[in-house]
Amino acid sequence: MGPLSATAFVLISLVKVIVVFTVIMVVVALMTLAERRVAAWIQDRSGPNRVGPWGILQPLADGLKNLLKEENLPGAASAGLFFAAPMIAIFPALVLFAVIPFASPLPTRWGLVPMIVADIPVGFLYIVALASLGVYGLFLAGWASNSKYALLGGLRASAQMISYEVGLGLSLVPILMLAGNVSLPAIVGQQQELGVWYVFPLLLAFTFFIVSAFAETNRLPFDMPEAESELVTGYHTEYSSMKFSMFFIAEFSNVLTQSALMATFFLGGWDIPFWSGDNMRALADGTIVGATPALWKTLLTLGAFALKTGFFVFVFIWVRWTLPRFRYDQVMALGWKVLIPLLVAYIAIQGGAMLGLQAGGIDSGRTYALALFGLNFVLLALLLFWLDRGRVIRGSWGASRRRTQLIARAPENVGAASEEAAAV
Amino acid sequence: MQRHYIPVLILFALSLVNAVALVGLSHLVSTFRPTHVKKAAYESGIPALGDTRERFAVNYYVVAMLFLLFDVEVVFLFTWGAVFNRVGLFGYVAILLFLFVLVVGLLYEWKKGALEWD
Question: What ipTM was assigned to the predicted interfaces of this complex?
Fold first, then answer.
């Protein structure tokens, strides 16, 4: 099976773009429902369940409502930027998915079709570059509204997102070191070849990536830009109607993309574990290395990818309804004083360990990965222990000790103790 | 390989059309009857005091400047990471020196109080 002809390539690309775009929009709509349903489930109530079966048409009703609601344009706002900001926010959120491979290559009558919108060789840089554009939409929204809450939200959003972007970028460097490639299909292929998902040899990078991803998407516990108890709703205070929902579409599709990235970088993308039937890699000329592609394999791997992505989306929602919000200075301190120095140290340690293992003759395969996993596990344990410093992990012990001290210091007991001492 | 950028352009076009269509459609469909009160900036119900576009905390500028430095660092590390297995020990030592300079810079900013929020 050869490569696609030029006409077939363009037509199939068009089909893929439209299908993926539609699927993202539908999934984002369902995610708004999922968030409310999961929230309800966590808080032991029903959630929206009236529109359609299990409330599944609720997003449609919400969308229609938002379309018909009255628009708002504050008198002091800069009208052009005010209208442009939601568009600037939604654009990078929707195009990011282009370089994420979502299933194994599909054999068709016209040739082998890779299941990725754009198999560009610089997929990694594409993601980093476009993800950083998201901040413009939020900041311009805050600035254009000319309202104090909106401006503060916009400022917070921009400072927080650029701070954690450094952390996000740094936590991706170990992946590059291990994969030696900047194309996402190649990273998936490397994980299949290694036989171990990157979450194991790069456990610490995964941890840092999750923290940065939460901050990048402005989700709780990092939702400073729209902290409703401080800033009403932050940068979109003055927005209503469809422009308001566009910020939410942008936020949810960012969550979806970050989940898909976690699945791709750390959980093997569309790889099915313990099965070599899907270990295939399409070369640039359309030939295939490894197992033979088939339609059922494509569907199966698509299911695996959806499952992994869905899991991370659930984690995003779960965390949102579990953890309280940080203070702003805590968020910035975590980004600059903890995340960045630790990541720099981690990159140095990881690089040294990889060079050491290679010098020792172990430079690929499962042993290499497991040795790195051991190192990462120890480092993560040390990090958690240091971050905790006996506050949570040894909580019951600490609490009982504190209680004993308090009892001893209580006035009536202090007197009793001194009387005892006097009697002795 | 150039042709792989065609779908990116198609997706860009589709996303732009989608963004403009969403805003445009709701602008056409929905009503907007501005009144004096509706056009005022929202400040929790009380009349807005003064203008918004005044001075704001200098920390935001400092963070933006630091970001520029460290983002360039990340770009350098990307290129190094991609060829990590080929440049070996020499590249590793070189990048350690580079990281050392940056960490000294970060510590300097830290001691100067550029990372403090109050």
Answer: 0.86
More confident residue, A320 or B48: A320
B99 touches chain A (CB under 8 A): yes
pLDDT tens digits along A252-278: 999 999 999 999 999 888 888 877 777
Distance CA A345, CA B100 (A): 10
First vs last C-alpha separation in chain A: 96
Architecture (CATH level 2) of domain B2-112 = Up-down Bundle (1.20)
**Which of A83, A125, A74, A410 has the alpha carbon at shortest distance from B77?**
A125
Rounded CA separation A288/A286 (Å): 7
CB of B63 within 8 Å of a chain A CB? The answer is yes
Q: Can you list the alpha helix ranges (DSSP code H) found in A45-109?
A: 58-68, 79-95
Contact B11 A98 (CB under 8 A): yes
B61 shares contact with chain A (CB less than 8 Å): no
| Domain residue ranges in chain B | 2-112
Q: What is the pLDDT of residues A325-343, one digit of tens each?
A: 888 888 888 888 888 889 9
Closest Cα to residue A27, out of A94, A105, A118?
A: A94
**What pLDDT is recorded for position A256?**
92
**What secondary structure letter does DSSP report for A284?**
T
Q: How far apart are CA A286 and CA A280, in angstroms?
A: 12
Stretch 17-56 of chain A: residues touching chain B, C-beta under 8 Å:
17-18, 20-21
Q: Where are the domains of chain A?
A: 6-331
- H helices of chain B, where? 6-29, 36-39, 59-82, 84-112
Look at A78-82, A219-223, A247-251, A299-303 and tell me which has the smallest mean pLDDT: A219-223
Could you report the per-residue pLDDT of A127-156, keeping only the tens digit for each?
Answer: 888 888 888 888 888 888 888 888 888 888
The answer to whether A195 touches A187, Cβ cutoff 8 Å, is: no
